[in-house]
Amino acid sequence: MIEPVKLADFFLTFLSAASVILFGAVYALLFAYAKVSKMPRLMPLAYSAYAVLFASVITLAKVTNLFGSAFWISLVVVMLVGYLLAPHAIWHLCVGTHAASHHDDPVADKSDQTPAPLNFGSVNTFHQPCKEEAT
Amino acid sequence: MAANDNELWWASETFWKKTTIWTTAVMFLVLVGLTLDTMSQIQVGGKRVPAYSAINHRIDYKMDESRHAQVPVIGIEEPLFGKKLTEQEAEALVDHGKLTMHAKNCMDCHTILGNGAYYAPDLTKAWLDPYWGSRGVREELMVAFIKDPTDKIHNSLGRRMPNLGVTDTEAHAVVAYLKWMSTIDTNGFPNNFKPIDQEN
Amino acid sequence: MTALRALDSANLNGGQKLAVKYFTVALALLGVQITFGLLAAVQFVMPDFLFGVVDFSIKRMVHINAMIVWMVFGFIGSVYWMLEEEAGAPTVGLKLGNIIFYVFTAAVLVVVAVYLLVQTGPGEIETQWFITEGREYTEAPRWADIGIVVCLLTFFYNVAATFSKGKVTGIGGVLLLDLVALAGIYTLGMFYTTNLTMDQYWWWWVIHMWVEATWEVMVGCMMAYGLMKVLGTSRKIVTTWLYLEVFMMFGSGILGIGHHYFWIGTPQYWLSIGGFFSALEPLPLVAMVVHAVYDAGVHKSRNNNHPAMGWLIAHAFGNFFGAGVFGFIHTLPQINLYTHGTQWSASHGHFAFYGAYATIIIAFFYIALQKWRGDVWMSGNLFGGWKWKWSMVLLNVGMLGMIMGMLVAGFAQSQIERAIGGATWTAFFAAQEHPWFVQGMHWRLAFGTMFAAGYALLVWDLLTIGKRETRPVQSHDDAALEAK
Which of C286, C420, C475 is the closest to A7 by Cβ? Predict the structure, then answer.
């Protein structure tokens, strides 16, 4: 069962829906950037992006009349929790997958990669150390 | 694959391979289950998709408060072109109309149940459109329009429908198909549609 | 080493020689798509343009069919491109693959000729077999449907036999399953029924499962290969992430099909299922942002093919905005009731097809050309490098402009025609005559022209890039060092 959006709320619907996804991305971006460049000062900014996302989800839910039924409320909850936790989860996964591959024995790893993905020059040193920022 | 002590199980290739396969399989099975249920609900002659012989009746589109949506209502007997058809005859006529609409590629200008192109009006409730004026002249106006629309009044933009060489028989069949189409329960699409006055 | 880099097929393996044939036809068909799109856009502004000669329906049909075919050709080409390197074996049944390429191309030409010259037929079943099926996106007549399935199966045979002769990599495994689904799902749309709701139900199985499922996975495979190739990311990492991506896409996308089942006569529970799962569809895209930042920050790897990298980045953004943002803003049934079947759909469709698919296929064109010219330099200070940059600017800005034009038109349409007027004939034209709509269509035409100019430049660049270069490709190590 749905209750359609009111005409007066059309613009707010489109705007809040777009904000949900956009601020979801901004939150993810700032979160990851703060971690990867070891700048915890950026973290509050990431969470304020999430706060905007939170407000957008609530606005969207209001104008699309989602609070009328338990089913649609569950969607609101899933979105709020999902967008909050997904960047954390993906971050752990990034660290996890890359840690495993960094510790691979390069010789054993090579057999894993037949055929070599690249055939020009020495290409097995994929992972460049993270020292470049210094210059 | 070389054994790797440092590998975390939840970050391993094998774990995600299995997760992917299982998730895909489960989602697909759920979809198959829902499809089977939907198939049984959208058979012609059911509640959502009425029998072809519905074209022997007056069709209306009214607000159903309990569903927050407008729904088609099959009313009193009101045969199309004044001729009551059997179920088989109705099916043959509607079928010919649908084949014609495929053959003339109507869907690449119009939308049908909201799907298609956006150059010309939606046809979901074309049968009920107030544009046809009154119940008495609607059928013949529709047939005449479909057969030769080019110089009929459309709009102030100058946008017109071309003459697609629709025969008289085909045009009658298309009207039957459109009438039947308007009986399909589309969950309230289109919303706020004000149907043609059929009382007089 | 030669002084100038000629296109020399000796630089390519067997599968790649076939791939560049597919790429060539794909690029030409992109031109057809743009031409007919422009003609249709002109008719929105000047309704009598080619009226009665090539009507809007025909222009639009050629426009969207050319798109599907060029993208399918682009995908097939991309798979043949990576096949031998992935499998570690020469392509099995290459001769048959070549024959099928010519048959497929000839069939496409015949179908288009019939579209343009015969156009419509009588309201009989024979019309569906020999002229057109008259269903959006799958307008191709039934004989061509069967032909497409035969071609896809032969293609599948090439791929499967090659992998089983060599070795099935992670990317290979995903690809094989995807191709089975691709061919299998297409057959589900190959029937006629009078029951319109049944017709559209299965029709969406084909469209949704191709465009929002199997094509996305195909692109996932291409992206995985492209990242290894252009950035030198390790195979293990891209494979794990490919699985994760497929998991998220199928996890939300398979039941996301429900957003096509809101208004076609299907039961009410689809409103809930479709709304729920399609609201989750952007989550994977947002999550991927983290991965992209991580990769960029940790690896510092530099790419050795700037045009390809540029287009892969355009793909990431296009997919996010086109499919993610533009999809989500009108996917909930509460608002979709008013936006479904308006210029909103057109706006989203243009953004998503271009952003998710056109971009990555163009990236593959550049990957192919680099090798075709004997692993030529395609990094900084590229000779004539302004061409790829400017074509990219014109194509992207042109597309964004078109999208915005349609967005404004759709915004007016959803209110005037749908919410106020209730989608009657009069309401439809009241919206089409509204200044916002009319101006939106003018902007769309103007930016469409810019897009066409970008295409012309793209073709010129693809024909000439690397030709005057004497430098060989930059290794990933050198590229990274240079970045210091």
Answer: C420
